[in-house]
Amino acid sequence: MFFEDWEGIIRVVIISLCIYPLLIFMLRISGKRTLSKMNMFDFIITIALGSTVATILLNEEVTYAEGVAALAMLIILQFIVTSLSVRVSAVNRMIKAEPRLLYYDGNFNIEAMKKERINKDEIKQAVRTNGQPSLHHVKAVVLETDGSLSVIQGEEEGEALKDVKK
Predict the structure, then answer these.
(1) What is the pLDDT of residue 112?
(2) 150 and which of 59, 107, 124, 142 could share a cystine (Cβ 3.0–4.6 Å)?
(3) Which domain holds residue 48?
(4) Is the dihedral of CA 117, 82, 23, 48 positive or negative?
């Protein structure tokens, strides 16, 4: 149906005007981590927040107070889990993928590339994006926990590569 009545539209407008500033406030107090580059855990939280806001706006059976409680719980749980992940390595391993070495010292790690579903062209693109004219100038390419590709230059292996899964 295209239009039922003005009451539903007015409700959406009023709830939007209330929930939007509240969401900004809650995200602001939860810290920069909530809005950082997304790893899998961050992606899930972002989807959950979006779904919750949509439900608050469009489902008349969900009261504003219930919606605020749901948003607050998601943000509080996200804050607790990320705080624990900084302090407890087991929690960190549960919620984050490990970085993966895809290219090292002139060799593509084909097994890792297949597992991560990355092809040579994507690695070459990351090298170009990093301003390198060829793979000969690159020591390593790492698939990071947020899905980005890091390009490491230089002759020696640095300490930044020591915790990367090969």
Answers:
(1) 93
(2) 142
(3) 6-95
(4) positive
